[in-house]
Amino acid sequence: MSIPLGDPDRRSFLAARQPEGHVPLSAWPRTNKSMPLVELDTEWVRFSTQNHRTKAEQQREAQQRGQDDLFTSDPLGPPAQEVQFLILSGQSKFDELKEDLLARGQKEPAIVTADGVLINGNRRTAALRTLRREGHQQFGYVRCLVLPADATPEEILVLEAELQVARDFREDYSWINEAMMIEELYELSGRDWDRTAQRMHRKAGDVRMQYEKLLLVHQLVNQSQGTRLPIDFTDNESAFEELAKHIRNKPRDEAESVKKSYFLGILSGANYRQLRHLRCEDAETLVERELLGESALEGVLATARSAESATDDSDPLSDFMGEDGSQESVVEDVLSLVVTRRPEAVVQLPDGSAVPMKSVLGSLSGAVNAAAREAEERNREQNTVDAPFQRADKAFRELERIPSLLGKSRAHSAWDEEAFQNEVDRIAKLVEELRETS
Predict the structure, then answer these.
(1) Under a CB-based contact definition with an 8 Å cutoff, are residues 142 and 128 in contact?
(2) Would you give the distance in Å from CA 110 to the centre of its chain?
């Protein structure tokens, strides 16, 4: 995490401000937690473009505007700052925040670097700036605590992690943005999960799960060749969590089979609760069978396969590897086609016609759901077969404990041997009935 520095004049200007006093900042990692409190013009302060609460949204804005370096070439310049302002003011509950500020004013100071870059209080400052532009001149200034001039990027990231667990009117982090923060903290913590968890005030298993979910998202985004962004999968958290948990300790073949099936289901909008039934080693086979059996997808499958063949032909390793070097996979071919096209795109078919991507996604969703239902039915049948064995095993383990308990029980004055023998007879009778059941 690198915090962009402003020009020297900004730092000099802020250093020359006469503080109203000093306020302790308990979340600051150093021993000296006393920070100067100053008032700054809401138009003068700069929004942090490194704020993890808006990281995924920034990626989307940069892509939509065709400016990959929008927030990196000049993060404190007018273009980046105005877009960041639009992102902040477009978040949910922003109007409620404005109403709260109108009613109560600013109760908690924001936090800025020595260059006047907001580390905490970005949304509140955006709301104050909006109110001022709407004619409420009393909101022209924001009260801020100023961090030391030598604050490091790691200290600032740790501070953000400390502050993000607080409540107030702060917008909750999306799971994608929170996972991105964890990813960065994990690297800064020397890839130590315990240290990362301590900084996030979470259990190590929780932060690791967020990280593993994000790794799966990264895989899909990388496969999309720039078509998809992490923010596109904000609503799919449960599916990614189930997938991450399932494949964590599975053999590679099974993990890949389930992962590809899940990815295709997520992209096509398959029913989430049905999708979980595809957590089985032959998930890809089940999905492939449904894809091949769906007549509406015949042209799409041909397009997907031809696109994959073209890729293979251009691969300099394909001749060296030979036919055995790659294994055809219908699911993988279709996944490669779908992930690189937006829902509003069209798919060109081999016969020269075209089909809307939304129509393709509908057919794919139906195929994945059908495969999941087949897996569910099979699991139900298997459970029916296994249930008597599971119950018998459970009963046996309970009965197996009885001999070790009898010594103490029989030595007790309240022990009833006749009642116990009656229970033994009941067990023997039940066993006999089980033997006779055909």
Answers:
(1) yes
(2) 28
DSSP of 142-192? EEEEE--TT--HHHHHHHHHHHHT--TTPPPPPHHHHHHHHHHHHHHTTS-
Query: Which amino acid would we find at residue 161?
Result: A
pTM: 0.73
Query: Residue 212: what are its φ and ψ, rounded to 5°?
Result: -65, -35
Contact indicator for 104, 18 with CB cutoff of 8 Å: no
Query: Does 23 lie in the same domain as 122?
Result: yes
Count of domains in the chain?
Answer: 3
Give the pLDDT score at 316: 39
Structural domain for 381, as ranges: 281-313+331-400
Same domain, 291 and 390: yes
Residues 419 and 376 in one domain: no
3-state secondary structure of 217: helix
- Is residue 307 a part of any domain in this protein? yes
Q: Which segment of 109-123, 152-166, 406-420 scores lowest on mean pLDDT? A: 152-166
Whether residues 359 and 438 share a domain: the answer is no
Instruction: Decide: 8 and 116 in contact? Cβ < 8 Å.
Output: no
Q: Based on the fold, state whether residues 380 and 412 are members of the same structural domain.
A: no
3-state helix, strand, coil split of the chain in percent (to 5) is 65, 5, 30
Beta strands in 249-291 (DSSP E): none
Note whether 301 and 413 are same-domain residues. no
Last residue of a domain, one of 151, 176, 206: 151
**pLDDT tens string 223-242:** 999 999 999 999 999 999 99
163 — phi, psi (to 5°)?
-75, -25
> What burial class does residue 174 get, using C-beta atoms within 10 Å of its C-beta: 0-12 exposed, 13-18 middle, 19+ buried?
buried
Query: 298 and 423 share a domain?
Result: no
DSSP 69: T
Q: Which two tokens stand for residue 176?
A: 């994608």
**Considering the domain boundaries, does residue 382 fall inside one?**
yes
End-to-end CA distance of the chain: 70
